[in-house]
Amino acid sequence: MTIGIGVVGAGIMGADHARTLATHVGGAELVAVSDPDERRASEAARANGARRHYTDGFALIEDEAVEAVVIASPDHTHAGLVLACLRTGKPVLCEKPVAPTVGECLELVEAERRTGRMI
């Protein structure tokens, strides 16, 4: 079974995650990369065999081919992107910090709890 993965953020860490997923993670298929810099998103997608790229991380999350998401975008974007993943029911791995404030972190924990998937 293969899981379609999307990476939000094509900077140093995001590009590294994309490369790792494309070359070293069995059962993972990198299907999309997003970055506000269209050229950077396009290059990271092309270099790692992803079918498409976006300039909007939320559009990537809505892509039906994306079954799980890695977030490696700037810190201030993390909370909103994680919430979008939770709303769509997609598993998410988020670079640290998960959110820039304790309040936002608690909001994310509560949102995850409401999904019923939290142990």
Question: What do these coordinates show?
Answer:
The protein has 119 residues and is an alpha/beta fold. It has one domain (3-115): 3-Layer(aba) Sandwich (Rossmann fold), CATH 3.40.50.720. It has helices spanning 12-24, 38-47, 57-62, 78-88, 102-115; strands at 3-8, 28-34, 52-54, 68-71, 92-94. A 5-stranded parallel β-sheet has the order 3-2-1-4-5, with helices on both faces.
In terms of topology, how is this protein built?
Elements: E1 3-8, H1 12-24, E2 28-34, H2 38-47, E3 52-54, H3 57-62, E4 68-71, H4 78-88, E5 92-94, H5 102-115
Parallel strand pairs: 1-2, 1-4, 2-3, 4-5
Helix pairs in contact: 4-5
**In terms of structural class, how would the helical and strand content be classed?**
alpha/beta
Q: Assign the CATH superfamily.
A: NAD(P)-binding Rossmann-like Domain
Q: Name the beta content range.
A: 15-25%
CATH class categorisation: Alpha Beta
| N-to-C CA distance | 25 Å
Task: Indicate the radius of gyration in whole angstroms.
Answer: 14 Å
Give a quick precis of the structure:
With 119 residues, the protein is α/β, with parallel strands linked by helices. It has five helices and five strands.
Main attributes of the structure:
19% strand; 119 residues; alpha/beta; 5 helices; Rossmann fold
